[in-house]
Amino acid sequence: MFKHILLPTDGSDISLRGVQLGIELARSCGARIYALHVIPPFHTFTYVAEMLAATEATYMEGAVERAEHYVADVRDLAAKAGVASDGGHVVSDVPSDWIVHEAQRHQCDLIVMASHGWSGITKLLLGSETQRVLQTSPVPVLVCR
Description:
Elements: E1 4-8, H1 13-29, E2 32-39, H2 49-80, E3 85-91, H3 95-105, E4 110-114, H4 128-136, E5 141-144
Parallel strand pairs: 1-2, 1-4, 2-3, 4-5
Helix pairs in contact: 3-4
Protein backbone atom coordinates (compact mmCIF):
# COMPACT_ATOMS: atom_id res chain seq x y z
CA MET A 1 0.00 0.00 0.00
CA PHE A 2 2.42 2.72 1.16
CA LYS A 3 6.07 2.65 0.07
CA HIS A 4 7.67 5.74 1.65
CA ILE A 5 6.35 7.53 4.74
CA LEU A 6 7.42 10.98 5.95
CA LEU A 7 7.58 11.31 9.74
CA PRO A 8 7.97 14.91 10.94
CA THR A 9 9.22 15.23 14.51
CA ASP A 10 9.74 18.11 16.91
CA GLY A 11 11.00 15.95 19.77
CA SER A 12 7.78 16.22 21.81
CA ASP A 13 6.06 13.21 23.35
CA ILE A 14 3.04 13.57 21.05
CA SER A 15 5.37 13.77 18.06
CA LEU A 16 7.01 10.54 19.20
CA ARG A 17 3.60 8.83 19.24
CA GLY A 18 3.16 9.83 15.60
CA VAL A 19 6.63 8.52 14.81
CA GLN A 20 5.92 5.19 16.50
CA LEU A 21 2.63 4.80 14.64
CA GLY A 22 4.35 5.66 11.36
CA ILE A 23 7.09 3.11 11.98
CA GLU A 24 4.53 0.41 12.83
CA LEU A 25 2.63 1.21 9.65
CA ALA A 26 5.83 1.18 7.60
CA ARG A 27 6.79 -2.20 9.05
CA SER A 28 3.39 -3.68 8.23
CA CYS A 29 3.46 -2.30 4.65
CA GLY A 30 7.12 -3.00 3.95
CA ALA A 31 7.65 0.76 3.51
CA ARG A 32 10.63 2.91 4.37
CA ILE A 33 10.53 6.16 6.33
CA TYR A 34 12.02 9.62 6.11
CA ALA A 35 12.35 11.49 9.43
CA LEU A 36 12.22 15.28 9.26
CA HIS A 37 12.80 18.03 11.80
CA VAL A 38 12.14 21.65 10.86
CA ILE A 39 14.34 24.07 12.80
CA PRO A 40 12.75 27.44 13.52
CA PRO A 41 15.14 30.19 12.41
CA PHE A 42 16.73 32.55 14.91
CA HIS A 43 14.86 35.81 15.43
CA THR A 44 15.95 38.72 17.55
CA PHE A 45 15.56 42.44 17.95
CA THR A 46 18.98 43.98 18.38
CA TYR A 47 21.16 46.57 16.72
CA VAL A 48 24.52 45.17 17.90
CA ALA A 49 25.79 43.06 14.99
CA GLU A 50 28.41 41.20 17.03
CA MET A 51 25.82 40.16 19.62
CA LEU A 52 23.42 39.03 16.92
CA ALA A 53 26.03 36.94 15.11
CA ALA A 54 27.32 35.27 18.28
CA THR A 55 23.83 34.58 19.59
CA GLU A 56 22.57 33.28 16.26
CA ALA A 57 25.61 31.04 15.85
CA THR A 58 25.09 29.60 19.33
CA TYR A 59 21.38 29.09 18.69
CA MET A 60 21.93 27.39 15.34
CA GLU A 61 24.63 25.12 16.74
CA GLY A 62 22.26 23.92 19.46
CA ALA A 63 19.28 23.70 17.10
CA VAL A 64 21.15 21.58 14.57
CA GLU A 65 22.44 19.34 17.35
CA ARG A 66 18.87 18.84 18.64
CA ALA A 67 17.59 18.23 15.09
CA GLU A 68 20.23 15.58 14.47
CA HIS A 69 19.35 13.96 17.81
CA TYR A 70 15.60 13.90 17.01
CA VAL A 71 16.22 12.40 13.56
CA ALA A 72 18.70 9.86 14.98
CA ASP A 73 16.12 8.79 17.59
CA VAL A 74 13.56 8.14 14.83
CA ARG A 75 16.08 6.23 12.76
CA ASP A 76 17.06 4.13 15.79
CA LEU A 77 13.42 3.24 16.42
CA ALA A 78 13.01 2.35 12.76
CA ALA A 79 16.12 0.16 12.80
CA LYS A 80 14.83 -1.71 15.87
CA ALA A 81 11.58 -2.35 13.97
CA GLY A 82 13.46 -3.50 10.87
CA VAL A 83 12.32 -0.49 8.82
CA ALA A 84 14.64 1.23 6.36
CA SER A 85 15.06 4.92 7.12
CA ASP A 86 16.68 8.17 6.19
CA GLY A 87 16.25 11.65 7.57
CA GLY A 88 17.27 15.24 7.70
CA HIS A 89 16.45 18.73 8.85
CA VAL A 90 15.69 22.10 7.31
CA VAL A 91 15.43 25.64 8.71
CA SER A 92 12.12 27.43 8.18
CA ASP A 93 9.53 29.70 9.79
CA VAL A 94 6.80 27.66 8.12
CA PRO A 95 7.25 23.97 9.01
CA SER A 96 4.10 22.92 7.14
CA ASP A 97 5.51 24.16 3.82
CA TRP A 98 8.68 22.16 4.29
CA ILE A 99 6.88 19.04 5.47
CA VAL A 100 4.87 19.05 2.23
CA HIS A 101 7.94 20.01 0.17
CA GLU A 102 10.10 17.24 1.63
CA ALA A 103 7.32 14.68 1.18
CA GLN A 104 7.24 15.55 -2.52
CA ARG A 105 11.03 15.76 -2.86
CA HIS A 106 11.51 12.31 -1.32
CA GLN A 107 8.52 10.87 -3.19
CA CYS A 108 6.70 9.97 0.01
CA ASP A 109 3.19 8.64 -0.42
CA LEU A 110 2.03 9.28 3.16
CA ILE A 111 2.75 11.75 5.95
CA VAL A 112 2.20 10.57 9.52
CA MET A 113 2.30 13.37 12.06
CA ALA A 114 1.11 14.40 15.49
CA SER A 115 -2.00 16.49 15.94
CA HIS A 116 0.05 19.20 17.61
CA GLY A 117 3.52 19.88 18.97
CA TRP A 118 5.42 22.40 21.03
CA SER A 119 3.40 25.47 20.05
CA GLY A 120 1.73 27.05 23.09
CA ILE A 121 -2.05 27.22 23.23
CA THR A 122 -2.40 25.17 20.05
CA LYS A 123 -1.41 22.15 22.14
CA LEU A 124 -5.10 22.12 23.12
CA LEU A 125 -6.39 22.13 19.54
CA LEU A 126 -5.41 20.65 16.23
CA GLY A 127 -2.02 22.25 15.68
CA SER A 128 -1.83 25.01 13.11
CA GLU A 129 1.09 23.34 11.31
CA THR A 130 -0.80 20.06 11.15
CA GLN A 131 -3.86 21.89 9.84
CA ARG A 132 -1.78 23.56 7.11
CA VAL A 133 -0.25 20.22 6.08
CA LEU A 134 -3.75 18.74 5.85
CA GLN A 135 -4.84 21.62 3.64
CA THR A 136 -1.86 21.65 1.28
CA SER A 137 -0.49 18.12 1.05
CA PRO A 138 -0.99 16.31 -2.26
CA VAL A 139 -0.43 12.99 -0.43
CA PRO A 140 -2.55 11.48 2.36
CA VAL A 141 -1.88 12.65 5.91
CA LEU A 142 -2.48 10.45 8.94
CA VAL A 143 -2.85 12.54 12.12
CA CYS A 144 -2.00 10.91 15.43
CA ARG A 145 -3.28 12.09 18.83
